[in-house]
Amino acid sequence: MSLTAPVADSSSPAVPLTVQKIGGRLGAVLSGVRLGGDLAPETVAAVRAALLAHKVVFFRGQEHLDEQSHEAFGRSLGAPVAHPTVPSSDGRYALGIDSEHGGRANQWHTDVTFVPAYPAFSILRAIVIPPYGGDTLWANTATAYGNLPEPLRALADGLRAEHTNDYDYAAVRPEALPETLRHHREVFTSTKYRTEHPVVRIHPETGERTLLLGNFVQKIVGLDGRDTRTLLGLFQSHIERPENTVRWQWRVGDVAIWDNRATQHYGVDDSDDHERRLRRVTVDGDVPVGVDGRASVLLAPEALPEPPFGAPSGTAAAREAVTAA
Ligand SMILES: O=C(O)CCC(=O)C(=O)O
Ligand SMILES: [Fe+2]
Description:
Elements: E1 2-4, E2 18-21, E3 28-31, H1 41-54, E4 56-59, H2 67-77, E5 80-81, E6 95-98, E7 121-128, E8 136-140, H3 141-146, H4 150-157, E9 160-164, H5 169-172, H6 178-188, E10 194-198, E11 200-202, E12 209-211, E13 217-220, H7 225-239, E14 245-248, E15 255-259, E16 263-267, E17 277-283, E18 297-300, H8 314-324
Parallel strand pairs: 3-4
Antiparallel strand pairs: 1-2, 2-3, 4-15, 5-17, 6-17, 7-15, 7-17, 8-14, 8-16, 9-10, 9-13, 10-18, 11-12
């Protein structure tokens, strides 16, 4: 199926954006757009509408992008935000996802949920792709919630969970090299964050209810480790059902953008020692709110560090929310 996306402003000329759905629950390929910082507002609006509708959208043939234009395009969707602990690859916002630095995200996760206002969107650009393997999977956390039996939805609605970047990395990556483990400890957890989120958040733009879980969850509030694992396994099994996912086979020059408030993703680690290199720019999000109206709360550190470059960021919004709470 192929259709021309509606534009937000009906007085503008139609945007030549083709939307090709590639999965029943999420995922669409968008064509007819050369990404960059100079897109017309109606094109940005059409991309954003497709992104909200399909949760993850893919563009082929964007080899012209570099760190600057990648960031500039990100800026058209919101304020770029640096990773809270991992230094950028370009001194600004771009995060390197590189095979030789242990950059293998082969766990289901939503990006950076250990801070309150974690990113709204992630924009991932492929620079070097291995000859085989290295696909990425995304799962729709809105349909995962919506398709739960009613008693499980009611259970999830009332739960809150603690997310941290200080999880037991060695336990989930038993094959990791000592160097990778040391790098993880020294860099990824250089500041230890802990945030309490609702397990079900109301999406601020679509109003959908989404499951907010993933690999940074340490415990469900009020439950011990065993019950936490049982419930997480239950909810994750609905998120990860193959029917609830889409899989992308990368080519150099591809760009994927996902709504980080309505998805989880997983980088499949099956390209042996082949080089794989991607760059990610994330765009600021806001503080989640649960179905009972309660917002997420930063538990540690006491105050969030200043974001770099004086940019407005989710971390700034979170700081306000925390001091207001
Ligand atoms: O390497 C991948 O396929 C996924 C990387 C990832 O998790 C991310 O860019 O946020
Ligand atoms: Fe990720």
